[in-house]
């Protein structure tokens, strides 16, 4: 199944299937004897240099040279797409899950099936869904980021409140908190984080993209996503949540001074809280994400990444060996936990001794990583990310910010996202139903 992208370039329509097929590029010669291979690796994570150092000490004949990109996210991905034809890309690149389809569609990265085996026995379907397209595997899942609810335990305890188990309880607790202290909010709605909303839509049952043969279906404004938008719309209208977007100076201030006492976040939250709310260490706790139906443990993800081997690499076998070590070996995963604060996508990795100690900012919750491992078992993701998720994400930020400013229904922003995504896919040459 194929679609035409740009000036005559055939690209995969990226329908998700089980891993199969052997069309990967020819293996590079195996390293042996004193032959030395040098690989280049682009990654923006703090602490990754220490992880790479450990690999280099263990593998003198396959040395990895790490460099930080000039820009993260789609700034990097667009540069990779541009440099692909010139043949100047690194051997290995960091890539977020939602961006991988775009790199596959532009033939920037290659399948790893000839080099990496047995992933289906090491990972669950939700994690593998992030890296497998058209029956081929383009990465080894590095981390999983289940969404959870962070709350100021000291404030909740003082007011006799409990972390909400359902979204109905979230609304009720938000009202009770506001009544007890009109200056406080249980959380915020963020127009700055499309991945945040996507994770909430996943939990509600949304599937924004599907591929059938060479035809795509796009359903960003489906009933599940509108249910999520309407829920937050009601809270905003009643003044029960803050409209301050994540990462803004005002949001940081309100998180730090106790104006905002809850955050719908993800597993990596404790890594960010020190720079967001530095004076509140030891005061936060994490609880399962509120459910739409009591007892349903389903959650979406916010974030996550893998490493991919580029089409420009002259040593794909060695590059794949590094990627596999990094994300699925005990040594590699332990190093990622210690130095990058990653939470492994591998269920075995989630049981490593390095996770017995909670993140420093959550030292009051010794079972923090146990909670994350439990949440990870019930992760639900989109079956597939679209090939132009960057356009979808840009549209989210613009459309939801406009809706908040104009006080128009948030569900209308989803219609705008739908239109922008479909129009761009058609412009790129993809067949889109409807």
Characteristic key phrases:
434 residues, alpha/beta, D-Maltodextrin-Binding Protein, domain 2, 2 domains, 4-stranded mixed β-sheet, 3-stranded antiparallel β-sheet, 15 helices, disordered N terminus
Summarize the structure.
The chain is of the alpha/beta class and 434 residues long.
Polypeptide structure, described:
Helix 7 (194-204) crosses helix 8 and helix 11 crosses helix 12. The radius of gyration is 22 Å and the shape is globular. Mean pLDDT is 92; it is low at 1-32. By secondary structure, the protein is α/β, with parallel strands linked by helices. A hairpin with a 2-residue loop joins strand 6 and strand 7. It has 15 helices and 14 strands. The chain has helices spanning 48-58, 74-84, 100-105, 125-128, 153-159, 167-180, 194-204, 223-237, 249-257, 269-276, 316-328, 330-340, 368-376, 389-406, 411-428, and strands spanning 2-5, 9-12, 37-42, 62-67, 92-96, 132-133, 136-137, 147-152, 209-212, 215-218, 262-266, 284-288, 305-309, 431-432.
């Amino acid at each position: 199944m194929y679609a035409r992208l740009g000036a005559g370039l055939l690209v995969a329509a990226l329908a998700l299937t089980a891993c199969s097929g052997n069309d990967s590029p020819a293996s590079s010669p195996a390293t042996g004897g004193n032959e030395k291979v040098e690989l280049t690796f682009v990654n923006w994570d703090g602490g990754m240099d220490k992880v790479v150092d450990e690999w280099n000490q263990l593998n003198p004949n396959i040395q990895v040279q790490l460099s930080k990109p000039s820009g993260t996210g789609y700034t990097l991905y667009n540069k990779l797409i541009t440099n692909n034809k010139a043949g100047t890309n690194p051997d290995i690149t960091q890539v977020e899950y939602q961006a991988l389809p775009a790199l596959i569609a532009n033939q920037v990265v290659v399948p790893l099936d000839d080099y990496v085996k047995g992933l289906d026995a090491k990972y669950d379907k939700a994690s593998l869904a992030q890296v497998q397209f058209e029956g081929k595997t383009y990465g080894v899942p590095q981390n999983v980021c289940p969404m959870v609810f962070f709350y100021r335990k000291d404030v909740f305890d003082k007011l006799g409140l409990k972390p909400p188990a359902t979204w109905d309880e979230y609304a009720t607790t938000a009202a009770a908190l506001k009544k007890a202290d009109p200056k406080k909010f249980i959380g915020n709605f963020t127009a700055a984080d499309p991945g945040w909303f996507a994770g909430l839509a996943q939990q509600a049952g949304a599937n924004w993209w599907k591929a059938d043969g060479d035809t795509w279906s796009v359903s960003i404004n489906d009933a599940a996503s509108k249910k999520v938008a309407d829920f937050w719309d009601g809270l905003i209208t009643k003044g029960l949540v803050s409209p301050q977007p994540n990462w803004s100076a005002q949001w940081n201030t309100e998180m730090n001074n106790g104006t905002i006492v809850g955050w719908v976040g993800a597993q990596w939250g404790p890594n960010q809280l020190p720079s967001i709310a530095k004076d509140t260490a030891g005061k936060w706790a994490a609880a399962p994400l509120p459910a739409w139906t009591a007892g349903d443990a389903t959650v979406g993800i916010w974030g996550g990444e893998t490493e991919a081997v580029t089409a420009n690499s002259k040593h794909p076998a060695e590059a794949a060996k590094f990627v596999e070590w990094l994300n699925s070996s005990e040594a590699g995963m332990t190093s990622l936990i210690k130095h990058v604060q990653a939470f492994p996508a591998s269920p075995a990795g989630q049981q490593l001794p390095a996770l017995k100690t909670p993140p420093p900012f959550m030292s009051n919750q010794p079972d923090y990583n146990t909670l994350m491992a439990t949440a990870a078992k019930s992760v639900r993701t989109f079956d597939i990310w679209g090939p132009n998720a960057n356009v979808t994400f840009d549209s989210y930020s613009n459309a939801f910010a406009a809706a908040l400013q104009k006080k128009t229904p948030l569900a209308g922003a989803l219609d705008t996202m739908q239109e922008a995504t479909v129009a761009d896919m058609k412009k790129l040459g993809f067949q889109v139903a409807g």
